[in-house]
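pasting for ref. prot 1 ->
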Amino acid sequence: MRKLYMEQLEPGLALARAIYNDRGDVLLARGVMLTSRYISALEALGFYAVYVSDGIGDDLDPPEVLSEQLRVATYKHVRELFDVVQNVTSLHGKAGRQDALTQLSTSTGPQVAQLYRDVEKIVDEVMTADTLSGVASLKSHDSYTFEHSVEVTVVGVMLGKRLYLPPQELHQLALGCLCHDIGKADIPTEILSKPGRLSEEEFAVVMEHPRAGYEAVQQFLRSSDNIARHVVWQHHERQDGNGYPRGLHGNNSFGGTMDLRFDKSLILPSAEIAAVADVYAALASDRPYRRALKPPQIIATLRNMSGSHLNRELVRRFLSILPTYPVGSEVMIISGSLQGHRGVVTEVNPIEVHRPKVRVMLDPEGRKLTPFEVDTKVDRQIELATTSYSEEAQLISA
């Protein structure tokens, strides 16, 4: 199966994975043949890509760090919590902020109980994965905030696992990541979904969400959840001290401790992990104002941001579990005896995630070959690059 953008879809292609709505109900089942009507309806609902069977690597099933069932259920549960917070805060308005916060402690009981159950399940599932397979969100608006929260949680736990965090700290990290954007319940939808650059006034509103989120989770998380609350409060702080809301700074290292016994001007390590996960998930998702970056672009961006924005050591560790070319990626061979050939990644090596196995399918002139596989971990002369969208179309039609 492959992930295709809407502009690449044609009637007659079969869905390789089911499409769900924001409530977790199946919109289109696996195996359904796409029609022009279905494609238009999915675009109208905010979908920008789907997984299809199109004759290119149909036997490939990109590994999912989180099962689709748990992912969709958690999207739904996070949305329900956001809705409660939004309803309570809008009911009281800015003048009644304290009354709203007080009410949150009694209004979110069922949603918060479900949140803790989801955290347990997410940590259990993620612990069995070796590498990330990419962001699974297929929508660019409406449910983005909720889907993003789940993606950040998955990535954060994957990185926490790579750092050998003990289970209790992984659960605190996951809880904080799931709630990290809860303060956006106070932000008008027209700002969150704005397709262009935010004005200074609009960005000032957005910058309030870590503080608003921290005030909210203070009311409904357990008193022992200090780390989770600080993830919510600090996930937009920067290593150079130019983040918000408090201008904390980091030291670009990771000592392995996740407690609160440190210089109060330093960012909590768990919040630094969440910051890396937050940036990655945002870069890997389509937004109204730009298309998702491809993995090599994401890796380059993370490296550029490390040191000043993101913790340099955490980025280094994160890149050791982030494949440059995930399973199902279309690639071109740019060096060695097969230079110019194109194909699809079939397997990622968990030890050397940047040197995958590739099924070669097209020669340099675009002619279809009898497929054969090469292992770039064995043949070190082979270097890869992603194909352009036009080249992807050529792969599809070959």
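and prot 2 ->
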Amino acid sequence: MRRTRTELLLATALIASAVAGAPAQGGPSGLPRLLEPGFYVVPYAATGGTPSSLAFGPDTRKDEKGERLYVTDNASGDVLVVDDISGAGSPPQVFASGFRGPLGVVAARDGSLYVADAEQAREGPFGFRPYGRVWRVLDQNGDGVADEQYVVLKDLPNGRHNTNGMAFGPDGMLYVTNGNSTDDGVEGGESEVVPWSGSVIRVSPKAKGLSLAVLSPRKALIATGWRNVYDLAFSPVDPKTLFVPMNGVDDARKGSTGENPVDPGLEDSDDALFATKIDDNRIDDFGFPSCLFNEAKAGNLKPFENPNPDVISKFGPCRKSVGRPVSSFGLHTSSNGLAFQTTKAWGPDHRHDLFVAEWGSLFGPPMGHDVVRVQLDKSGRRVTEQSVFLHLDFPLDVTFDRAGALYVADFSGQIFKVDRAP
């Protein structure tokens, strides 16, 4: 997402007001509306809060062998759990609490959870600023409620954006997205910390109290040069390829931090989808903040120079050789959580497709508010087609269960289930 924790809380109030007063017509403040025939969508669970991340994981209760849906609630700081994956069960229960604006959750095979949240501003290795961290959360006694938690990784530089989604790689390592600190590189937040701002970081899930400041970029950094990266997903075709959506600049014009982008001009940059390899012995740099991408401006996905001269003065000009996105989601769609359909449940035409949640615009012309289906070629890397799959309020994350059904966390307080019609 584009917003800090404070902005998220304000957005929550605005969303609640909009939902209460708007007609049920599909789209923002209406009912979910499927854009593709042959599927159905039903309410799955009402969280009563602001669900920000979803992950299925093993049921840690004694003698239980199924899976549970874990949900981070950004407003309350809780990790919730939904037990009945048939969708007809009891309301979510609190699995763990005490987090500050959690925006990411992932489950390990042993049932332990990893949760990303943010600290209040404090003095740290990169100055006085907010810092992100990653927790490990355990249910040691098997009663279905967490009874131990400790910090795995700390001191991730935050600012306008936070430490967000995570995933386990084919190497068993934990991969973490860390959003950048400002809007365009110099305005609208704390100073950027190169190369850790707007990056994907690899860390051992067995680490305890590890500071980012002691890590070597050569070993821990997968890619950098992004703005706000909210989530990541490994390709089921090539597990060494990582897909990462990025939120573009709200307003790259000097002197405007894009708090209310009523007119999304051509100097703004697209939300885009990137792909990077984790085993090529290189750190990809996609050019932000010097380089931006905007199909309407450039007519393609070639990088162009940030129009704010202060950015170029501080970070240097855009190198035209930087890696390009594999696709664009357009301006101000706030493209965030994503997941691959890896099962055969929806047939061969949907297997290995990527689904991306677009939280959408809060001000100005409606943009996003969709779950987008991204189709790839046989190599699993080149985008061949992109279409709106589901239209709803403020979708922030998506995940699939083992049977192949899709679950969508909507920031207005609902989780929806989508499956192919029988």
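The radius of gyration is 20 Å.
The CA atoms of residues 113 and 279 lie 25 Å apart.
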